[in-house]
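Our consortium's second objective concerns turning raw sequence data into structural hypotheses that experimental partners can test. To show how far this objective has progressed, the report includes one record in full. It was chosen at random from the queue rather than selected for favorable results. The single chain below, 382 residues long, was entered without modification.
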Amino acid sequence: MKIGLLGHGVVGSGVRQIIDEGATWEVRELEVVKILVKDESELTDPRCTLDFNDILNDPEISIVAECMGGLEPAHTFAKKALEKGKHVVTSNKKMLATFCMDLFETAVKSGVTVHYEASCGGGIPWMASLDRTRRVDDIEGFRGIFNGTTNYILDRMKKEGTDFSEMLSEAQKLGYAERDPSDDIDGYDVRYKVALSCVKAFDTLVNIDDITTFGIRNIRKEDLDWCAANGMTCKLIGSGKHFDGFVSACVIPTFLRGDDIFSNIPSNFNIIESQSKTLGAAAFVGQGAGSLPTAHAVVQNIVDIWKNQDPEINDKFAKPVDNQVHKGTFYIRTAKQAGFADLIDRRVGELAFITKKISLVEAAAACAAANDESLFIAEVAE
């Protein structure tokens, strides 16, 4: 089976390496025949091309593996490939979460498929696990530490007793965080993964902007000190729950109890857990990023297509996100507390307090109204 590869960077080069090495008989049935690169400096392989049409118009190429990143031209190239009757495998969470409805509708019309294991959890077989569980059980919900960068920062802050800026700088030096870390520390990376997990777990398309999202940009040592003093650990958690007619979905720092398995996930590791009636809680732990782990997931999807497994061509239904059902208590630190008077249960610092049990919608609305750029919020696990 012949493959056109879009992008030859961190993930794309890993895909090419795995397929070229052909460690198993399944992989030896695959062949990368063309590789789209950005400029002449990347023409390092005779298969490289600067023209996407060389891949699009090659009748022997039946699968396009999109590993470019970014919204465009990745979206346009993926859509044109689907329209041309080629299957698409993507590791691009941001692009797919943004254009999910468009690409799935195009795939259904063309009788081909979109696969995206690598877009969520790197090498962790999260999407495959959801598929297997759903053969027997409906998925009721999921939660996860989906982002290794923020988990590394929070883990190091706890262990070293240091502040956020120092640990962010260290993560950047180690290559765990980008020069512009906004997608990671503001929770957007996790939001894309929550949206795609809703697609796979619930057959539900959601508007990513409707997923309530809080990151860790404003976390301070004093917040983690209170958390630790109360026997808890802070993790950035993405979650989703399925209800009749809607889903609840959010990203929020969470103070977890010590007996929660999530509280013990170290460094840049990820953990993702599904919940269903007969299986109960099923969790996967592993590297959520990196060249070869993510490329491994891309190649797994290519093998799925070759074996005609996981066809991923069923219709998806758009449902609204409603977080009124998500109720809890929240730790909030803000210098602008006027609008929180009716929500406060007890004060835990000069600027910090714990709310009464309220909905996430109510908490988010109060935080937005405070208009405090330094505000930090975390859910406190029961």
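The partners drew two points from this record. The mean pLDDT is 94. The two ends are 51 Å apart (CA to CA). Both points have been shared with the crystallography group to help prioritize constructs.
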